[in-house]
Amino acid sequence: MAEYDYDVLIIGAGPGGYVAAIRAAQLGLKVACAESRETLGGTCLNVGCIPSKAMLHASEYFDAAANGAMADMGIDVTPKLNLPKMHEQRIDAVEGLTKGIEFLFKKNKVDWKKGHAKFVDAHTVEVAGEKVTAKEVVIATGSSVTPLPGVEVDNTKGVVVDSTGALELPKVPKHMVVIGGGVIGLELGSVWRRLGAKVTCIEFLDQILPGMDDDVRKESLKIFKKQGIEFKLGTKVTGCTVKGKKATLAMEPAAGGDSETLEADCVLVAIGRRPNVDGLGLDNIGLELNKRGQIEIDHEFRTAVDGVRAVGDCVPGPMLAHKAEDEGIAVAEWIAGQTGIVNHDVIPGVVYTMPEIAGVGLTEAEAVEKAGGDKKAIKTSKFPMMANSRAKTNHEPDGFVKVIADAETDRVLGVWAIASVAGTMIAEAALGLEFGATSEDIAYTCHAHPTHSEALKEAAMGVQGKPIHV
Ligand code: FAD
Ligand code: NAI
After folding, report:
1. How far apart are CA 470 and CA 405, in angstroms?
2. Per the database record, which ranges form the Pyridine nucleotide-disulphide oxidoreductase dimerisation domain (predicted)?
3. Global confidence as pTM
4. Which of 105, 201, 453, 467 could anchor a disulfide with 461, C-beta 3.0 to 4.6 Å?
5. Minimal-distance CA residue to ligand 1 atom 46
């Protein structure tokens, strides 16, 4: 009889866990995956990436019809919102994809252990009363919303909600207040702004989108303001009272000062996410968390406890689905005796607003800091989308592409883009960074015309000397 029930047990079936499970099975291992949700796919497929993109995509069509963008192209329509139908197509998208993972589990002979998993010891996990043993256990439990003291989320009432509640609102709020000018606040704030809500975004810092390049942060703020989102930067929320269907928020300048109040019929709390580790029984295996509540790992995704590894949102690094997926593949490869590599310096990030906002590699400030504060050690160039023939023709003039390169070696250190299809364009930049491209390599690569991607080529030409079209 085998020593363990399984070669690998994965806890959590999000992009980190389900991908690890499938890859491990492909590599010939006997695999089980524990998931407490009714459906597979984790945050990403159920209440994250996929449903938010379904609402962003649909609301973008509505906005284009409502704000005159379609009329500008000779299409006269007066849109009428059918919100239940819009939600239906969101639910359909989620259902199709989560069922798809179920199919892939069956196809690859991954056993789904339904229920909440808790460590008994490093090789034994209890799921719904069953003790499952495995030679290696991978923690891929993901993350959930960081609570804001004094602002209690209740998705069932729909007045103070988190991202899950904000995806499902049964009617368009008159005034939505978004707490947090990060990715969720701007994506979901955009959805409801497009569908007719007045949206106010309250951000603690004096700029939105922390972690992105400063030029991108400034320019996107201008664009969101132009679209009608109002911002209160450098402001902290100190409390929230709810009476019936109305919320009153108390806030004050982050640096201290007079407080003021703001009324809303919907408040979205989006101030970040934190790892899911409660009830996992980490005490039973003696695994401690770092100061940020994350599980520390080495480059083979091993935790401090022998036989236990971890990937995805519950470990340090950006909380992104594609980062979790790549770690899922790599951890399975290590477990199978191969070498699994994730280049954490080249993980693209995309905000799926219109225009999209994307970046990969270093920001200008990070590149200068890495060069010991020497601004001359790097070269940068920005090419405006206004001067890109395809963007101009498509009535999408907002944004730019910015290339940051090492002044001595010309190696590209970072690429940032605001463009209608920046999320797609950034893949080319990521490939360039992965292959160690110079700005000259990109500038002399033939790009199809007319495409938005030519803006990346021209920004690279700008680092070289001069682009053609500005
Ligand atoms: P998760 O997807 O969180 O999955 C973890 C799973 O583990 C969950 O299903 C949970 O139920 C299960 N679990 C937890 N504890 C246990 C336990 N003890 N026993 C059994 N099961 C357990 N990222 C992008 O890259 N692009 C996007 O467009 C994007 N959009 C997003 C939009 C929203 C609104 C949100 C909230 C997030 C978005 N993200 C996006 C982030 C993305 O969803 C996460 O980075 C990704 O899901 C992390 O994957 P994971 O596998 O680490 O964890
Ligand atoms: P975030 O970290 O992107 O932004 C949170 C924002 O809230 C920050 O700007 C922060 O300064 C601000 N903030 C923090 N405390 C505050 C307070 N008390 N008052 C006002 N503002 C405050 O977090 P968000 O938007 O909640 O997203 C969570 C995670 O989900 C992100 O890490 C992101 O990676 C992931 N995600 C990714 C998406 C994508 O890739 N397109 C889409 C949605 C989420």
Report:
1. 20
2. 347-460
3. 0.98
4. 467
5. 321
**CB neighbourhood size of 200 (10 A):** 19
Mutate-to-test residue for ligand 1 from 11, 35, 43, highest number of ligand atoms within 8 A of CB:
43
Atom of ligand 2 minimally distant from the CA of 319: 34
Which CATH code for domain 6-145+274-335?
Answer: 3.50.50.60
* C-alpha to C-alpha distances, 138 to 20, 24, 414, nearest whole angstrom: 9, 11, 32
Ligand 2 centroid distance, CA of 146 (Å): 9
Could you tell me the two tokens for 419?
């463009």
**Residue 167 alpha carbon, nearest atom of ligand 1:** 34
**Distance (Å, whole) CA 110 – CA 99:** 14
Residue-wise pLDDT tens digits, 99-144: 999 999 999 999 999 999 999 999 999 999 999 999 999 999 999 9
Q: What CATH topology corresponds to 349-463?
A: Enolase-like; domain 1 (3.30.390)
Q: Is the CB of 438 under 6 A from ligand 1?
A: no
Integer angstrom CA distances of residue 341 from 22, 308, 346, 367, 435? 17, 18, 12, 24, 14
Positions of CATH 3.30.390.30 in the chain: 349-463
Q: How many residues does the chain have?
A: 470
Provide the CATH topology of domain 160-271. FAD/NAD(P)-binding domain (3.50.50)
What's the CA gap between 282 and 119, in Å, rounded? Answer: 7
Check: complex ipTM more than 0.90: yes
CA of 100 to the centre of ligand 1 (A): 17
Q: Distance between CA atoms of 424 and 452, rounded to whole angstroms? A: 10
Q: Report which protein residue has its CA nearest ligand 1's atom 26.
A: 49
Residues of the chain with CATH 3.50.50.60: 6-145+274-335, 160-271
Q: How crowded is residue 239: how many other Cβ atoms within 10 Å of its Cβ?
A: 14
**Burial class (CB within 10 angstroms; exposed 0-12, middle 13-18, buried 19+) of 290:** exposed
Helix H or strand E segment including 370: helix 364-370
